[in-house]
């Protein structure tokens, strides 16, 4: 039973199903906390949308999660982290509530990437929005200036996932195509970041076509580990999060569809709620 008076879950947001790959690791590493997941499936994908639209949609979802009792929200979406996070942190949060926090997924990933590569050539698969923001190049440069970063936008991957085409032949075609285009930029890439939280769902297909010596990094465990450390540094925030191990799901689209897909990605049986925006 959730005690509504003290209910203050960790909010996890994504445009659709992708953030479930992060939520899965968060609940594994931090099982004591309450979580609420919001997937904006009705308006996914965000990847090709303008800065203004991604910002507007993300802010709307952030406000919804705050209204549900969240004190802290993780944007488990690279596109939203690249295009909306900074404005929300700097412009909106001071007007909403100075004690609440919104975090992203790009910084935790770029902070550790240098520990993985040996050749110093890193590949980034991401949405158009994330690639054109150059957030990965800029952030990696801050922590590991010696690394060379090669980006490849894969605009078809999220629509294929959101439209339940993971095992379709079209997916194989588009995965192979982008792998070839990434390696055409550098043959020395030994580490690839799946810089879109949807992409781990394509991992078996991606691994089928990648050279064997290349490591593929998914973000879920990295983000969860970094968030655990964040909470140990911010004990005041940690004490405000409720701890009854409840995970609640909201989608802006059909709950039947969400439950079917989300159960596949998340592992457990899911009963989501509909949220009209
Ligand atoms: N999962 C989002 C990301 O990490 C999805 C992007 C989209 O909706 O296109 O970028």
Description:
With 277 residues, the chain is α/β, with parallel strands linked by helices. The protein has two domains: 4-104 and 221-274, Rossmann fold, CATH 3.40.50.1860; 107-219, Rossmann fold (3-Layer(aba) Sandwich). Helix content is 46%, strand content 16%. It is built from 13 helices and ten strands. The protein has helices at 20-29, 51-67, 78-83, 85-96, 106-112, 128-133, 135-143, 157-162, 169-183, 203-209, 220-233, 235-240, 255-266, and strands at 10-14, 35-39, 72-75, 101-103, 121-126, 148-153, 191-194, 215-217, 247-251, 273-274. The strands form two sheets. It has a six-stranded parallel sheet, with helices on both faces. It is globular, with a radius of gyration of 18 Å. The model has no long low-confidence stretch (mean pLDDT 95). It binds D-glutamic acid.
Concise structural overview:
This protein is α/β, with parallel strands linked by helices. The protein has helices spanning 20-29, 51-67, 78-83, 85-96, 106-112, 128-133, 135-143, 157-162, 169-183, 203-209, 220-233, 235-240, 255-266, and strands at residues 10-14, 35-39, 72-75, 101-103, 121-126, 148-153, 191-194, 215-217, 247-251, 273-274. Bound molecules: D-glutamic acid.
